[in-house]
Amino acid sequence: MFPFRLKPLVSLCLLCAGASSHALTIGEIQGEQHLSAYEGQTVAGIDGIVTAVDARGFWMQDVIPDGNVLTSDGIYVFTNSRGRPTVGDRVLVSGRVDEYRPGGAASNLTITELNTSFGAHAWTRQSSGNALPAAVLLGNAGRLAPTAAIAPDVGNVEAAGYRLAPSLYAMDFYESLEGMRVSMASAAVVGPNAQYGEVAVISHDQLGTTLSSARGAATVQRDNFNPHRLILDDALRSTPIVNVGDSLTEVTGVMHYSFSNYKLNLTDAPTVRAGALQPETVAPVAPGRLAIASYNIENLAGNAAQSRFDGIAGQIVGNLGSPQLIALQEVQDNNGATDNGTTASDQTLERLTQAVREAGGRDYGYVVIDPLNKADGGQPGGNIRNAFLYDKAAISFAGALGGANQAIGVLPDGTLSFDAGRVDPTNPAFADSRKPLAAQFRINGENFILVNNHFSSKGGDEPLFGPDQSPERGSEAARRAQAQAVASFVGDLLAADAGAWVIVLGDLNDFQFAETLAPLGAAGLVNLTDTLPAGERYTYIYEGNAQALDHMFVSAALLADGSLRYDIVHANAEFANQISDHDPLLLTMAMPVPEPQSYALMLLGLGVVGAVARRRPAR
Q1: Nearest Cα residue to 51 out of 256, 262, 272
Q2: Domain 26-127 falls in which CATH fold?
C-alpha cells in the first residue's frame, strides 16, 4: 500500500512545456538506468494492458515488449482517489513521469511512475478482457538473478551515467523487471511468513548456489548476502503461511519496490508444498552434564498472555532440555509497553519460572537488575533488560549491593571477586541500550563468570537494496564500543586469573565475521559460533537471510575442557508460528567434579547508577 501523498499545487496539461512530442513506450520511459530520462515530463498516449490494480492505482505493461533486457516493459500508474481500470483493460495514459521514493526516505530507491492524480491527466479504456502479457519466468529455464553481488560499489546508483547491468547485479536485475508480470514455476521458502505478510523465496534452480543449511535456510557470508532472494508480498492478495523448507509453485505477481526491497506483489495464489521441517529438540540434560543456554525471548512482559509464558517455558523444557543456567534477553517490565514509569520485572520472571515448573522443568531462581526508566532502549515503555535463570538445586549465587565500578580482586582461596553487576553502565557506549549483566555462579566448587549482553540494534543502517552502494552501517560504531567495554572487563578478569572460566553470551546483534565483535576475540575469547558448520551459523532470519546475531564466547581455560558441546537450537527463526524471533544457544559440558574442601559463596555486587535504580534480589 502507498502512504498518503499531497497533490501538486499546480496543474499540468498535455501541451505544457517539456511534454513529449510522441507517444512513448513504457520501456522507453523506464530506460536503462534507475531513474527515467523523462522524469518530471508530461507524456501522453502511453499504451498498455492493465495487469494489477490496488487502492491507489494500477500496473500496466506494454502490449509488445521492446526486447531490451535492460528496460522494464511495466510501470505503475498512480491515480490516488481517481477511478481505476480493471485487470485486462487496454488503456491509454497521460500523466507526469515521477520517480516516487517510498516513504520519502533517502535510503529507498525510487519507483518510476505515471502520475495521473491531478489536472488533465487521465487514462482512457480502449478495450476490455484482453489477455495479459506473458509473465517473465524466473528459473526453470527462465531468467535467473545474479547470486554473487547486489550492486556495484559505485556510490549512488541513481547518479547520472550508471547503466543497469542485470546479468551482473541482482539489484539491476530486479530493477529491469520493475512493474512487470513475473512468475516462478518452483520456489523454495527461505524466510517464513512470520510478520508483515512477507515470504522470502529462492528459485529452486538456485537453492544451494550460495551457502545453505541442511534445513534449507540461506545463510549469509562475509561477502555474500544471497542477492537472488525475492520477497513475496501481500499488498494485492494474501501470502500463504509457510516455513523454511516449504515449496511454492505457480508463483505469479507484479514486481514492485517498497520498504527497501524489491518485492513480487502476488496476483495469483501459489500452490504450497509443505516440507517436513520441525523445530529442533535436544535430549534432557544428562546426569553428569552441565547445560548453559542463551535465549532472546522477544519482549516478554509481565502482562503477556499466558500462552506466551507457556510457549517459552515449553521450549526451555522441551527444545532445550532444561538447562541449569540460562541467560535471557528482552525481559520487559511487569506491564510491558504501558508507559507509566514501571521498571520492575519481578512479575515477568515469576510468571516465567512458574510456567517452567508447571511444564515439568527446573525450579529456577533469577538474577536481574531493573533499569532506569526509558534508559535501555527497546519498545517504548517496555524497559527491556537481561536476566539469568539458574537451577537453585544445582547452582549457588549470592548478591550484595555494590557500586558501579568493577573492583576485581582475588579472594584468599584464589578465586575471583568483582564488585559490579552491570559492566561499565555509565559508559556512553551503553546510552539508550541494554547494560551487560555480569554474574558469578558456583557449580560443584567451580566458579563460572557469565556476562549477559544485548548490544545495540542494526537500526539506522542503510539497506542492502538501497541507492548507496556499498551501504553504510552506521550502527556498527556503537556495537564495537560496547564490545570493547565488555572486552576490557574480561581482560581485567583474565589478568587476575588467566584460568578463569568466563562466558560472554547473548544477542550481540552482529554477525560472527563482523569487525564489531573483534575486541572480544582480542581479549582472549573464542566465539563458539565459529566452531559450527558454516551453513548452520544462524539464529535469526531477516528478509530471507539466515544470520547469527546471538553468540557465545568462552575463555581459553573453558575451551580447553574437551567435554564442551555447542549448538544453535533451530526452534524459532525458520517457522511462521515462532515463539520468539531468535533461536536459542546451548552449551553443554561435563559437570565439574566437587572439590573436597568447602568454599564460601562468591559475592556479586549488583552495581547501579545512583539511588534511583532498584535492585531485584536473587530468588
Answers
A1: 256
A2: OB fold (Dihydrolipoamide Acetyltransferase, E2P) (2.40.50)
What are 123's three cell numbers? 487514462
**Contact status, residue 608 vs residue 369, Cβ threshold 8 Å:** yes
SS3 591: coil
Q: For the chain, what is the total number of helices (H) and then of strands (E)?
A: 7, 33
Do 26-127 and 136-273 show the same overall fold?
Answer: yes
pLDDT for position 413: 52
Low-confidence ranges of the chain (pLDDT < 70): 1-22, 398-420, 595-619
450 in Cβ contact with 290 (< 8 Å): no
pLDDT attached to residue 22? 64
- 91: β partners: 48, 125
Give just the sign of the alpha carbon dihedral 16, 17, 23, 24. negative
CB atoms under 10 Å from CB of 38, counted, come to 20
Write the class of the CATH domain 136-273.
Answer: mainly beta
Rounded CA-CA distance 493/480 in Å is 20
494 contact partners, CB below 8 Å, separation of at least 6: 500, 502, 523, 524, 555
Q: Which residues contact 279 (CB under 8 A, 6 or more apart)?
A: 319, 570, 571, 572, 575
Single-letter residue type at 530:
D
DSSP secondary structure, 277-333, as one string: -----PPPPPTTEEEEEEEEEEEE-TTS-HHHHHHHHHIIIIIS---SEEEEEEE--
Sequence ranges of the domains in the chain: 26-127, 136-273, 289-616
User: Could you tell me where the DSSP H helices lie in 382-445?
Assistant: none
Please say whether the beta carbons of 181 and 61 come within 8 A.
Answer: yes
Residue 480 backbone phi and psi in degrees, to 5? -65, -40
- β partners of residue 333: none
What is the CB neighbour count within 10 angstroms for residue 320?
A: 25
Please compute, for residue 427, the number of CA atoms within 13 A of its CA located in the half-sphere on the CB side: 23
Backbone angles phi, psi at 171, to 5 degrees: -65, -40
Beta-bridge partners for 504:
451, 553
Q: What's the pLDDT at 609?
A: 25
The domain over range 289-616 is classified in CATH as 3.60.10.10: yes
Phi, psi of 284 (to 5 degrees): -55, 150
- C-alpha Rg value of the chain to the nearest Å: 28
Q: What are phi and psi of 454, to 5 degrees?
A: -145, 90
C-beta of residue 204 within 8 angstroms of C-beta of residue 214: no
The contacts of residue 505 (CB under 8 Å, 6+ apart) are 292, 294, 327, 450, 451, 452, 453, 550, 551, 552, 553, 585
| Cβ atoms < 10 Å from Cβ of 16 | 14
What does the pLDDT read at residue 320? Answer: 98
